[in-house]
Specification:
heterodimer; B: about 0% strand; disordered N terminus
C-alpha cells in the first residue's frame, strides 16, 4: 500500500516541480530521494506487514511478502536505474520533471499489478503502466522514429488491452460465482466451460502481448529501438518484469487448477519465444536492437515460471527479474554513453574505458548465464523448477541450447570490447564519464556477483 | 590430526591460494615484477601440493561427506572440496605444470603481462577446483570458471585467427556444460540427502542415486557430451586444432596439458559411478568413437605442416586411447588412464616448450621451412628427442607404462579394438620421427641459421621434464599406489 500511494504522490509532486521550477537537475534529486523513501517504506511494510496507511481496499489488493518482495526488487532496480541513467533522462527533452513524474506513475502501476486480487485491478494496473509509457516512447518529439514507435506501441497496446477486457468479461460471465476476484473464481479441477476457455485464451494473449512473448512480440523491436534509449532501458527491464509477475500471479492464483488445460499453450509460446528471440538477435548489428531481441529471448526463460508454477519457479521469477533487470540496466547505461550504437562502436573500449569494459563484461556474462553471476543462478532456478515438473524435457534441452546461442551475440560485444582495435585512433568512444557513474556501475556489477553467489539473499525475502 | 578440526585444508588451500594470488596480479603496476610473483606463487602451490600428498586425509572416494562451507544462502548448496588419490594426482599435475610453463615462457614478452599472468593463475585455481570438487554444484562452477580465463587468454594474446577459433571453443564447451547442467539438476532431483530429507548435490548422494535404465541412458549422454567436447573425442573435436594453434603457447600448454584432462577426470568421477549401467550399455559405442578418433587424428597428423597442429592432432589420438581405457572398465585400464593422464600432461607440455623455443627464435612453425636445428642447438635437440620418444611411448619412458596398461585393458575388452588402436601408435611413430627428421636434422636454411642454443633456465626446465619422463618410466609404482584406492572404489561399481 505504501508504494502505491507514495509513488502516485511523488508523481504529482514532480509535476508541480515541473510547473513551478525551472531547474533541470532538481527533479532528478527529488526522484532519487523519493525512490529511496519509497523503498524504505516498502521494506518496512514487508517486515512489519503493516502499511502506514489503512484503507479498506475490500480485498481487491493483497500485500503478502511475495508481492512486496517483488515491488522491492522493482524499486531497487529503479533506484539503480535513476542513479545510472538519471542524467540521461535530463537530456531527452525539456520536460524533465514530467518524465520523472511519468516514471513514478508507471511504478504505481507496477505496484498495483503486482498486488491485484481482482481482474479489474489487474486491468487498472496494466493500464497505469502502459499509458505513461506511450508518452515516454514518443518523448523525443522531433525524432520520427520515436513518434512512429509511440504510435505503434499505442495501437498495439490498445489492441491488447481490448483483448484483455474481452477476456475479463468472458471470465466474469463464465464463472459460477459471477466474480472478478481471482481467488474466488472456483474452477473445479479439469472443469472448463467454453466461455472460460475463451476468456482464458484472451487473457493469455493479452498478457503475452505485454511481456512480448512470441508470436505477440512484433511491436517490441521497433518500439524498443525507436524509443529514447533511457526509456527503452526502463521498459525492457522493470516494466517487463512487472508484466511477468502479473502474468504469473494471474495464472497461478486464478487459473492454477486449470493448468493441465493451458500448459501446452505456454509450452508452445515458450519454445517459440526462445527460438525466435535468440535466432533473430544473432543477426542484429545495432546493440540497441539486439538488446530488444535479447529481451524477448530472456522472456522465454521467464516463461518457465508459468510453465512450472511451483515454489522454485516463484523464487526463480523474482531472482530472474532482479538479475535480468540489473544486468540490462547496466548494459543500457553503458550503451547510452556510447557515441556509436553498433557493435563496432564498442571496438577497443577496454583500452579507453577499462571500468566500463569490465563492468560491461559482468553484465554480459550475467545475461549469458555464466556461473558466479546472478544470471546463472536465475537460469538455474528456472531449469530446476522446470525439471521438477518432470515432463517436456525437450523444452528444457531446447532452452539450454538457446542459452548457448545467446552466448554468440552477447560475446560479440565482449569480443568488440576486449579484442578488437578501435577504428579511429583519436577521439573517445564515449561521452564523458563521471567517477560517480563508474562507481555506480561497479556497485551494480558487485550486486550481480553477490546474487550469483548467494541468491538466498533475495529469495529468502519471499518467506519473510 | 583430525581434518575436521582444521579450519582450512589442503584442497581449499590449493583452490584459494592461486585465486587470491591471481587477483593480486591485476593490482601490479610494474609488468616486470609480476613474472617473479607468479613464479613464486606457482612454486608455493607446488609445495602445497607436495605436502598434501603426505598430510591430507585419504578421503574415501565416493563416501566423502564433509562440507567445507555450507552456503546458507544457496539452496542446499554446500561447497565440498576433497582430495582422493585421483584428485591428488591431478592437482599435482596442475601444480607441476604451472611453474614449468612460467619458467619456459619467462622470456616471452606479453602485452600487459599482469593481466596475462593474473588470468593464468585464475585458470589454475579453476582447474584445482574441478579436481577437488566433491559436490556437483561446485564442480559445475569450477568447470566453467576454468574456461573463462582461458577464453580471455586465447582471445587476447593468441594468433591471427584467435577470436574466431577461441569463440568456437567457447561455444562448444559452453553448450556442453549447459547440457551437463540439466543432467546435474535431474540427478539432484532423484538424490536423497544424508539425513533423509531433501536432495543433495554431494558426490556421495550422486553416486548413491537410484535411476531407472531409461533415465540413466539419456542422462549419461547429457553428461558425456559435455565431457567429450572437453576431451575432445571424435566427432566433437573440431574446435581443438584451431584453438591450440591460435592460443598463445603458454595457454596451449594449459589447454592440452591439463584442461583436456578435465574431461577424462570428469568421466571417472561423475559418469562411471553415477551411471554404471548406462556405461556398460554404451561402452562399445564410445570406445568405437575413441578408436575412430585415434586413427583419424593420426592420419591427419601425418599431413600437418604446422608444428602446433601436429601436436594438437597427436593429442587427440592420445586422449582417444585414454577415453577408450576408461570405458574398458578393467582395473588395469583404469590404472593406465590415471598414470597416462599425468604422463601425457608432462610430455605434451615438454613438446610445446620446444615448439615455443623454436618459434620464438625463428618466428616460424612450419615444418617445411625449418631444418638443421640440431647443428645449432644440440642440447635442445637431445632433450626434444627424449620427449618425442615419450610421445610415441617407447619403453623406459613414462608413456610406455601408461599406454601398455591401456592396451592391456583394451585387449581384455575386445582385441579388435586393440588392434585398430595399435595402428595409431605406429602412425604416431611415423609423424613424430618425420617431424624430428625434418626440423632438427637435415640442412640448415636461412631461417634456422639464426637459432642459438637455449638459455640455462630453459635447459633446466626441459631437463626436469626429461628426468620426470625417465623416473616414471622406470619406477611408476608411487603413482600407481596413489591412485589405487580410486580405481578400486570405481571397480566396485562394476563387479
Amino acid at each position: 500500500m505504501n508504494t502505491i500511494l507514495l509513488t502516485a504522490f511523488l508523481g504529482i509532486v514532480l509535476m508541480m516541480i515541473g510547473a513551478f521550477s525551472k531547474s533541470k537537475t532538481l527533479p532528478r534529486f527529488v526522484a532519487i530521494g523519493g525512490i529511496i523513501v519509497i523503498l524504505i517504506a516498502n521494506m518496512v511494510e514487508l517486515l512489519s506487514q503493516e502499511s502506514f496507511f489503512t484503507f479498506n481496499v475490500k480485498n481487491m489488493l493483497t500485500f503478502n511478502s511475495f508481492n512486496l518482495a517483488f515491488i522491492g526488487v522493482a524499486l531497487l532496480c529503479t533506484l539503480i536505474y535513476f542513479l545510472l541513467s538519471g542524467s540521461a533522462i535530463e537530456k531527452v527533452g525539456s520536460y524533465v520533471a514530467e518524465y520523472f513524474a511519468l516514471l513514478f506513475f508507471v511504478l504505481c502501476g507496477v505496484a498495483i499489478s503486482a498486488t491485484f486480487n481482482t481482474l479489474l485491478m489487474l486491468f487498472i494496473g496494466i493500464e497505469i503502466i502502459s499509458i505513461p509509457l506511450y508518452i515516454l516512447t514518443g518523448s523525443d518529439k522531433r525524432n520520427l522514429k520515436s513518434n512512429e514507435a509511440a504510435l505503434k506501441y499505442f495501437l498495439m497496446g490498445a489492441f491488447s488491452t481490448g483483448i484483455m477486457l474481452m477476456g475479463i468479461a468472458f471470465i466474469y460471465g463464465g464463472n459460477d460465482q459471477a466474480t472478478f476476484y481471482i481467488s474466488q473464481l472456483g474452477f473445479g479441477v479439469g472443469k472448463m466451460s467454453p466461455l472460460i476457455a475463451i476468456g482464458l485464451v484472451f487473457l493469455l494473449i493479452s498478457m503475452s502481448f505485454k511481456v512480448s512473448a512470441v508470436p505477440f512480440h512484433f511491436w517490441t523491436p521497433d518500439v524498443y529501438d525507436g524509443a529514447p534509449t533511457v526509456f527503452t532501458s526502463f521498459m525492457a527491464t522493470i516494466v517487463k518484469a512487472a508484466g511477468f509477475f502479473a502474468f504469473l500471479r494471474l495464472f497461478d492464483n486464478g487459473f492454477g487448477v486449470l493448468q493441465p488445460q493451458w500448459q501446452k499453450l505456454i509450452v508452445l509460446i515458450t519454445a517459440a519465444t526462445l527460438v525466435l528471440g535468440n535466432l533473430t538477435a544473432v543477426f542484429q548489428q545495432s546493440v540497441k536492437r539486439m538488446l530488444a531481441y535479447s529481451s524477448i529471448a530472456q522472456a522465454g526463460f521467464m516463461l518457465f515460471a508459468l510453465f512450472a508454477l511451483n515454489e522454485k519457479a516463484k523464487e526463480g521469477l523474482i531472482l530472474y527479474a532482479a538479475a535480468y533487470s540489473l544486468a540490462t540496466i547496466g548494459i543500457f547505461a553503458i550503451l547510452i554513453k556510447m557515441k556509436d550504437y553498433t557493435i563496432d562502436g564498442f571496438n577497443g573500449l577496454a583500452k579507453k574505458q577499462p571500468v566500463l569494459a569490465v563492468t560491461g563484461l559482468v553484465f554480459l556474462l550475467s545475461l549469458t548465464g555464466v556461473p558466479l553471476t546472478a544470471g546463472f543462478q536465475s537460469k538455474f532456478y528456472m531449469l530446476m523448477a522446470a525439471a521438477e515438473v518432470a515432463s517436456y524435457t525437450w523444452l528444457i534441452i531446447l532452452a539450454v541450447l538457446c542459452a548457448a546461442i545467446s552466448a554468440y551475440y552477447y560475446f560479440k560485444i565482449i569480443q568488440a570490447i576486449f579484442f578488437k582495435e578501435s577504428s579511429s585512433a583519436e577521439g573517445d568512444l564515449t561521452e564523458n564519464i563521471t567517477p560517480a557513474f563508474k562507481l555506480m556501475l561497479i556497485i551494480t556489477a558487485v550486486l550481480i556477483i553477490l546474487l550469483g553467489v548467494m541468491p538466498g539473499l533475495l529469495t529468502d525475502w519471499l518467506y519473510y | 590430526m583430525n581434518p575436521q578440526d582444521v579450519w582450512i585444508t589442503f584442497p581449499e588451500l590449493l583452490v584459494w591460494f592461486p585465486l587470491l594470488a591471481g587477483l593480486v596480479c591485476f593490482l601490479f603496476k610494474d609488468n616486470s615484477k609480476v613474472k617473479s610473483w607468479v613464479l613464486l606463487v606457482s612454486i608455493i602451490t607446488l609445495c602445497i601440493s607436495f605436502v598434501s600428498l603426505y598430510f591430507s586425509d585419504d578421503a574415501k572416494y565416493l563416501a566423502l561427506n564433509k562440507a567445507s562451507y555450507t552456503l546458507k544462502y544457496m539452496n542446499n548448496g554446500s561447497f565440498i572440496l576433497g582430495l582422493d588419490g585421483m584428485g591428488r594426482l591431478l592437482t599435482l599435475l596442475t601444480a607441476f605444470a604451472f611453474p614449468i610453463i612460467f619458467v619456459a615462457t619467462y622470456n616471452t614478452p606479453y602485452k600487459s603481462a599482469k593481466n596475462f599472468y593474473g588470468l593464468m593463475l585464475l585458470a589454475q585455481s579453476g582447474l584445482m577446483g574441478v579436481f577437488t570438487a566433491m559436490d556437483a554444484m561446485s564442480f559445475y562452477f569450477f568447470w566453467e570458471l576454468a574456461l573463462i580465463p582461458v577464453y580471455f587468454l586465447s582471445s587476447q594474446w593468441g594468433g591471427e585467427r584467435r577470436i574466431q577459433a577461441t569463440f568456437k571453443f567457447f561455444v562448444y564447451t559452453f553448450a556442453g556444460s549447459l547440457l551437463m547442467l540439466i543432467g546435474i539438476i535431474y540427478v539432484y532431483l532423484h538424490t536423497i540427502n544424508i539425513n533423509g530429507n531433501g536432495h543433495s548435490f554431494a558426490l556421495y548422494a550422486f553416486a548413491g542415486v537410484r535411476l531407472n535404465p531409461t533415465e540413466q541412458n539419456w542422462l549419461f549422454w547429457l553428461f558425456f557430451i559435455a565431457f567429450a567436447i572437453k576431451m575432445p573425442i571424435f566427432p566433437f573435436h573440431t574446435w581443438q586444432p584451431d584453438a591450440y594453434e591460435q592460443a598463445p603457447t603458454a595457454t596451449t600448454m594449459v589447454l592440452s596439458g591439463i584442461m583436456v584432462k578435465m574431461g577424462l577426470f570428469a568421466c571417472l568421477r561423475w559418469l562411471l559411478p553415477i551411471f554404471p549401467q548406462a556405461t556398460i550399455k554404451f561402452d562399445t559405442i564410445i570406445i568405437g568413437l575413441s578408436v575412430i578418433g585415434m586413427l583419424y587424428a593420426s592420419i591427419i597428423a601425418l599431413k600437418q605442416d604446422d608444428l602446433k597442429r601436429l601436436v594438437a592432432y597427436s593429442s587427440i589420438a592420445h586422449i582417444g586411447l585414454m577415453c577408450a581405457g576408461i570405458f574398458t572398465k578393467t582395473e588395469v585400464g583404469l590404472q593406465g588412464v590415471m598414470l597416462q593422464m599425468f604422463c601425457h600432461g608432462i610430455n605434451i607440455i615438454g613438446l610445446w616448450i620446444v615448439i615455443e623455443l623454436i618459434e620464438r627464435q625463428t618466428g616460424v612453425r612450419k615444418i617445411s621451412q625449418l631444418g638443421g636445428v640440431a647443428h645449432k642447438a644440440p642440447i635442445l635437440t637431445i632433450l626434444l628427442v627424449v620427449i618425442a620418444l615419450a610421445n610415441i611411448a617407447l619403453p623406459l619412458t613414462n608413456a610406455f607404462i601408461g599406454e601398455f596398461m591401456l592396451f592391456n585393458g583394451l585387449f581384455a575388452f575386445n582385441k579388435w579394438y586393440a588392434v585398430a588402436a595399435g595402428i595409431s601408435i605406429i602412425l604416431a611413430a611415423v609423424y613424430t620421427l618425420n617431424m624430428i627428421q625434418k626440423v632438427f636434422y637435415g640442412e640448415e636454411n636461412s631461417i634456422t641459421t639464426a637459432i642459438k642454443e637455449i638459455a640455462l633456465h630453459e635447459k633446466i626446465i626441459l631437463s626436469v621434464v626429461v628426468v620426470l619422463i625417465f623416473m616414471m618410466g622406470v619406477y611408476p609404482q608411487p603413482m600407481i599406489n596413489l591412485t589405487k584406492g580410486t580405481v578400486e572404489a570405481l571397480m566396485l561399481k562394476f563387479n
